[in-house]
Write a structure and sequence with these properties.
Blueprint (H helix, E strand, L loop, with lengths): L14 H11 L10 H13 L8 H12 L4 H15 L1
Helix pairs in contact: 1-2, 2-3, 2-4
Length: about 90
């Protein structure tokens, strides 16, 4: 079985990178170049958009943030910037 943290997945660095891009960033039309840090901040904002803090929900937030540590945001930023270059 493939290791989802190290094996490429659908052209992305790993499964987590694909999943975060697909779920939180793919619907955005970027107009300007982005850095990995820009992409990380946008993904986190979108992930917790509308998230309601309830009793015990801190664990969900903690797990989500741990998963985000496995994402290759450099890979996402590079792909977005390459797409922008090809469009212009």
């Amino acid at each position: 079985m493939e290791n989802i943290t190290t094996e490429r997945f659908r052209g992305w660095a790993n499964y987590f990178t694909f999943k975060v891009f697909d779920d939180t960033l793919s619907m955005i039309d970027f107009d300007d170049k982005v850095s990995a840090e820009d992409v990380r901040k946008i993904a986190l904002q979108n992930l917790f958009l509308g998230y309601e803090i309830k009793n015990g929900s801190h664990r969900v937030e903690e797990y989500a943030k741990m998963m985000m540590e496995l994402v290759d945001f450099d890979d996402i930023a590079e792909t977005i910037n390459l797409d922008l270059k090809n469009i212009k």
